[in-house]
Amino acid sequence: MKILGNTCLIFIYIVVILPIKVVSIFTGKAFLTVNLNEQINSYFLHTSKQNK
Amino acid sequence: MTKIILGISAYYHDSAAALISNGIVIAAAQEERFTRKKHDPSFPINAIKYCLKEAKIVTLSEVDRIVFYDNPKLTFKRLLATYIAYAPKSFRHFLHVIPNWIKEKLWMKQCIAKELLAIDNKISKAELKSKIHCTNHHQSHAASAFYPSPFSAAAVLCMDGVGEWATTSAWLGKEQNLDLIWQINFPHSIGLLYSAFTYYAGFKVNSGEYKLMGLAPYGKPNYVDTIYKYLIDVKEDGSFRLNMKYFDFAIGQRMTNQAFHDLFDGPPRKPETKIGQKEMDLAYSIQQVTQDIVIKLAKTIKKQTGADYLCLAGGVALNCVANGKLLKEKVFKDIWIQPAAGDAGGALGAALYSFYQQSNNTVIKNNVAQQYHGSYLGPKYSCKEVELVLQSLGACYHRLSDTQLIETTAEQLNNAKVVGWFQGRMEFGPRALGGRSILGDPRNEAMQSIMNLKIKYRESFRPFAPSVLEEKVSEWFDLDCKSPHMLLVTDIHKDKQLTQQSDENEWGIDLLKTKRSEIPAVTHVDYSARVQTVNQDGNPRYYDLLAAFNKLTNVPVLINTSFNVRGEPIVCTPKDAYRCFMRTEMDCLVIENFILYKPEQANQNKSLEWQKEFELD
Question: Which label site among A19, B30, B456, B564 has the fewest CB atoms less than 10 Å from its CB?
Fold first, then answer.
């Protein structure tokens, strides 16, 4: 059962997570802001930008 | 009609339950106190049973809403986004974490309903599920800070590791309304940054942060520039972003990575090994950075809201040194900090948020502040119950009148005895406030080391906190306001400080050798102290004890530390208290109107084997 579960998870990672990552690299859409950006004055996210 | 709401926090750390009736807090407790497992993350079944009993609720049908303090679906989305952002490095973490989410956390309502059916099998699962709701993590924190505060309007700042997406958030509270102004999202977290240094200094994440804070005064700001240059970018308004090149917490089992270790010239300190000047300097530096950010954020919120008052919650709000500095800056007229600022307080906040926001109630908010009971929201035991327990344990005890009890205990303290003090309702939150405390004489120079090494069995560098009569606080400390929940650090009053006699060459732990004030046992090496003010209304018996000690000694101050040993949750029941008393070198134990002296007790076991029972924190 555990082997089956893990196989499913590996499948999901390969067919969902990795392709989205590849697409995000090409489209420039970041899923998490992890780089420092010196160009803006504030890192606050106001109500309209929450949880994106 | 009475509206009863049960708040629950669980599954991460510090599980807890809280119960409110028409917005008034009836009971709240952490699960760890019942299971005796520190920071217990399991479903708080015992805490819930206690809350229901305290409110005299027989069946869950009488509860209108059950509110979980976090939104698992939002957290799951954040996890997926993290896995995508860090692919393919995130693969192992994905395999490790996701099964638990698929099995349990994604179906939180079913999970909670299943657990609650164990308490009450008369209610149907469908009815139970219809009562269960979720709030957002930071909503819960903000509500736990604003609604029990004495302010009808205030800005609220929440700072913690992470809750769903948010790591830092600002709110504006006005009567029953609580509105979000802005937030900073994961992975940029001041709480996780502090935890990364906690980990690197060899302490446990989610419990060792206060040790790092206690270690800071031994150090120097040698790493402040490095932290600002490489680890965090802080804007003028206090908003910040971490340089994730140095951290592993997003997808790893560790907080820091090799780049971080290279930056600070070596691997993390191994737990329980000698603490060196490097750890002390790191502690000082990250404390300095944290304070700077907190003060900048507070100034920004003041500018944005124009509010006179500030409420704080989230794990970072337990950083009482930063709180003290913020108070001194006088950005706001006053600040109020939720005593259970960590995730445990989320249970209370979830219930309060649900009551005020989702139910559209128009109850005057200040009722809550009046009924908060100074955070004494846990179980209490009658003299009859205590006596039965003491008899069953074969303890030798003396029953005293109220006056005799206070006078005898004050005399014991004056004679350099260490006293276990168990009175009334247990505190909600990590601080002992005179309900479940170990007390000592602060004038005694040796007391700091005696209590650390022979009573608490903990690291010798750690300071002890003072309780002081509220009306005398400004005579003894550089503080002119209340601090009933021991969440503010300030300096010992200049008049009580002794002229510096320390050796210039003293550094590190050796700094402890110098007597710095008239109350050396509660004076940290930088002359600071984490103060608790006590008044007659908040805790009358503890107030009377402080007054009696003052009458004997002219010192209205006592050492107050939590009633536990290292790694053990604070005692909850008289049995826990007796067991802790017998295992340590405490001299006497005062439980309600009973006093027990150590030499009179039979079956004294000097073995320290019991210490293996508790995992070191």
Answer: A19
Instruction: Determine what percent of chain B is predicted with pLDDT higher than 70.
Output: 96
For residues B466 and A47, the model is more confident at B466
Considering only CB atoms, which chain A residues are within 8 Å of B243? 36
Q: Which helix (H) or strand (E) holds B49?
A: helix B45-54
Whether B334 has a pLDDT exceeding 60, the answer reads yes
Distance of CA B146 to the CA centre of its chain: 17
Own/partner contacts of A28-36, CB < 8 Å, gap of 24 or more, are A30/B85, A31/B81, A31/B82, A31/B84, A31/B85, A32/B81, A32/B82, A32/B84, A32/B85, A32/B86, A32/B186, A32/B187, A32/B250, A33/B185, A33/B188, A33/B241, A34/B85, A34/B187, A34/B244, A34/B250, A35/B244, A36/B233, A36/B241, A36/B243
CA distance to partner chain A, nearest, from residue B234 (Å): 9
Residue pLDDT, tens place only, B379-388: 999 999 999 9
Contact B557, B522 (CB under 8 A): yes
Confidence class for position B153, pLDDT limits 50, 70, 90? very high
Element holding B82 (H helix, E strand): helix B72-85
Confidence of residue B525 (pLDDT cuts 50, 70, 90): very high
What's the mean pLDDT in B301-313? 98
Q: Would you call B158 an interface residue with chain A, using a CB distance cutoff of 8 Å?
A: no
Q: Tell me how far apart the alpha carbons of residues B564 and B570 are, in angstroms, rounded to a whole number.
A: 5
CB B365 within 8 A of CB B152: yes
Give how far A43 is from chain B: nearest CA, Å. Answer: 5
Q: H/E element holding B16? A: strand B16-21
DSSP-based three-state secondary structure for B450: helix
Instruction: Give pTM, 2 decimals.
Output: 0.94
How many other CB atoms are found less than 10 A from the CB of residue A7?
10
Q: Which residues in chain A have Cβ-Cβ distances shorter than 8 Å to B183?
A: 44-45, 50
Taking contacts as CB-CB distances below 8 angstroms, the residues of chain B near A44 are 182-184, 237, 239
Which residue from B minimizes the CA distance to A32? B85
The answer to whether the Cβ–Cβ distance between A41 and B74 falls below 8 Å is: no
Task: Write down the residue that tokens 């210039």 correspond to.
Answer: B504
